[in-house]
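BUG-118 | component: ligand-complex export | severity: low

The export step for heme C jobs runs without errors, but we want the raw record kept on the ticket for reference. Input record follows.
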Amino acid sequence: MKKGFVVVWIGLSALSGCYYDNAEDLYGTTPCDATVVTWTADIQPLLQAQCVSCHSGASPSGGKDLSTYAQVKTHLGGVVSRVNKPVGDPLLMPPSGPLSTCSLTKLDAWVAAGALEN
Ligand code: HEC
């Protein structure tokens, strides 16, 4: 009984300690919450802000329109590959420089959860 309590307490302290350290290390003072990531709230606004200016319209860059869910889903492999290229790689997207760590974390989480239109 007493031992169980101590184990749980240590477990909780370790978890909260870890969470705090990671958030501080990776994202500075702004925490990145990638626990619930949706197309509507996170991914679409991200692509809209970072990609759609080039990847939409009559002749989208690279022939890839990224302005709708269906098109993003079709090109998902290329999207994930291009945003994760190393800095300095000419294939990195967006061309101006890499997405933030938080944006990449959210994209990963969304893809891992099945890339749903949620
Ligand atoms: C400033 C314009 C610009 C922005 C912003 C931009 N791209 Fe691109 N993108 C291009 C151009 C130009 C190409 C074609 C040349 C190439 O393949 O690198 C391209 C190619 C691509 C391709 C490969 C297409 C193929 O040939 O299969 C993908 C995937 C892609 N971009 C994804 C993205 C994503 C995701 C974002 C946002 C995170 C983004 N791009 C932002 C200009 C842009």
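Assignee comment: Attached the raw record above. The mean pLDDT is 86.
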